[in-house]
Amino acid sequence: MIKRRFGLLVCMAMLLTGGHAFSAVNFSDISDVAGVADDGLGKGVAFADVDNDGLVDLYVSNKGGGNRLYLNQGNGNFLDVTGQAGAGVDHPGLTMGSVFGDVDNDGCADLYLATGGTYEIEANRLFKGNCDGTFTDVTERSGAGLKAFTYGASMVDFDQDGYLDIYCANYGVGAKNVLFRNNGDGTFSDVTEQAGVGDPSWSWMGIWSDVNNDGHSDLYVVNGRYPAGERNRLYMNNGDGTFTENARAAGVDDPHWGLGAAFADIDNDGDFDLFVSNYVGGNQLYLNNGDGTFAKATDHVRGGHEGWGKGPTFGDIDHDGDLDLYEGDCKLANQLYLNDGQGLFDDVADGQPVLRCETVRTKGTAFADTDNDGDLDLYVINWGAPNKLYENGNNDGRWLQVKLKGTVSNRQAVGAKVKILDSQSGDLIAMRELRSATGFCAQQPATVHFGLADRSVVDLVVVFPSGIEVRQEGVAPGQRLEIEEPRR
Which parts of the chain register pLDDT below 70? Predict the structure, then answer.
């Protein structure tokens, strides 16, 4: 596909850091042309292919005013179809971190709205996706219409029964987080007390990752309130439907006022590291020791500063084989950190000022290949200012995308790990985990993306949540693979 060039295009010079050469990366602001420059009181961004046409669509949650559903038209442009998407999809109240997920395993993306309330607390809403860009409100029957100030919702199959469950991170005096178990029949049960994950703190996000590589998704809860902050929680999955809180022993009980967090294997060593965005107290980076404990490594983020951190998102934007980081900021300016291949990051946003969003307050951010050309574009939610879609001009063919279909596992395969191996030595090159919500009120598409640098061929291993593995050898870059989980 021929790349379009709209708006400001700033080419980043080649950078040498720690002996590693970064590829030139350029982004251009195409928000207005693409039709997604919503200027509401934005909070959340969620990507999903809601009409199953192979293109990622976009849902914007606004904390005041109507939400927006944009259908991808296949040429890099989007169409606002909110008015035709079904009653309640616009939810003109207070909506924060909403999330897509196929909760009934019918192959259609369903939508869960995390709500607050304009005058009083309103119930969260669950919409069944109809696979055509429309939705039907099924909240009442589902039993998932929690009436709480839910800031961020996330989905995962915590008990590995093949159905996506819902976790609600709730905010306010006396609030307690809630875990809904999917019963597999369109209904949900509150299992918070049995599971042991009812954090009573002021919570903003709950994100999931298998931090100790035991095959079970663990839960990290980001907490905080002004001015003292609150300690974050790490709930380790015991594999029997219960969890054990372990943040202090694991070294990630960050005591500051946190808002967002994201897991990513930043050093390509086969475990998931953690970046925490703090509104007060400075952002923090924690390296996984390989056993679910972490070592603080904030000094690896060079050029970082103590702004009002909110929206972290990871992706390999330059296809050099490691994950880069974009961080939304509510005070100074957003940052773009390039990874030097050793897990060290340098802020290079000054080289592309268009990405900094100075003088505005950024909320959720997410990387997504919105134009299906193989590189990661970037969507940024701004508060009371137009949202931004930045087109990545890489277009170099050095990428691989993997879409999964669960059969024994949940249909969307949330929780699956995808590994890229050297085709000669069998050594791990990179690993990704398919997740739902991440960062701050954000969700990336349900497609795993790799940059392959200059490799002409790699081997691929998929570990589904069930533990079933699929291996493909001799995989060439520049393609999208669809891999279905074999039945036992």
Answer: 1-24, 119, 304-306
Q: Are 111 and 100 in contact (CB under 8 A)?
A: yes
3-state helix, strand, coil in the chain (%, to 5): 5, 45, 50
Measure the CA–CA gap between 239 and 38, rounded to whole angstroms: 42
What pLDDT, in 10s, does the model give residues 177-203? 999 999 999 999 999 999 999 999 999
- pTM surpassing 0.70? yes
Residue linked to tokens 């219409």: 145
- Distance of alpha carbon 397 from the chain centroid: 24
Give the closest residue to 42 by CA, choosing from 94, 90, 100, 82: 94
What are the structure tokens assigned to 244, written together? 């054990």
Give the count of beta carbons closer than 10 Å to the beta carbon of residue 271: 21
Cβ atoms of 157 and 416 closer than 8 Å: no
- The structure tokens listed for 437 are 């919500």
Which residue from 298, 479, 476 is spatially nearest to 373, judged by alpha carbons? 479
Alpha-carbon dihedral angle through residues 44, 185, 235, 240, given to the nearest 10 degrees = -160
Q: What angle do CA 301, 447, 360 make, to 5 degrees?
A: 45
